[in-house]
Amino acid sequence: MSGIINHGIAPVWDKNSEILILGSFPSVKSRESRFFYGNRQNRFWRVLSAVLGEKVPITTEEKTRLLLENHIALWDVIASCEIEGSSDSSIRNVTANDITPILKGSRVKAIFVNGAAADRLYKRYIYPVTGMMAIRLPSTSPANASKKLDDLIEDWKAEICGRMEKNQIE
Predict the structure, then answer these.
(1) Among 129, 77, 106, 121, which residue's Cα sits nearest to residue 18?
(2) Which one of 16, 39, 42, 167 is the catalytic residue?
(3) pLDDT tens track for 5-16
(4) Whether 167 is catalytic
């Protein structure tokens, strides 16, 4: 390991955010692009846009607009850690992000975590602070190769749309 790496990407949210999606920690490609899910092999933007019935965003501005227009906040569980490349299994010496400003400054009523690592880290570091349960979604990572794109979309749609109706939390 090469020492502590800081997250370096600001959360996307505003006062109208109703859903918060948390990943674990940005991949190398995301850290290089300075925005979430920067690895083209990660299916996050394809899945989320399909769930929302929107065009797949390309630019950071389009991605931010997709999130905010659909009242979705996006960030990660980890603020800093030691990590080998982009491997969640190598994460050590974690400092968690403080999501309370998002929760207090928005209308977030549901938290989703993208994959098993984000779920495990959320339960360990953030749930004890917020007391708010998170719903685990199957990972959009290319490492989750056993899950086909259509299956991911259906799984995400079932969970997210089950808690939204015309951008309103039920």
Answers:
(1) 106
(2) 42
(3) 788 899 999 999
(4) no
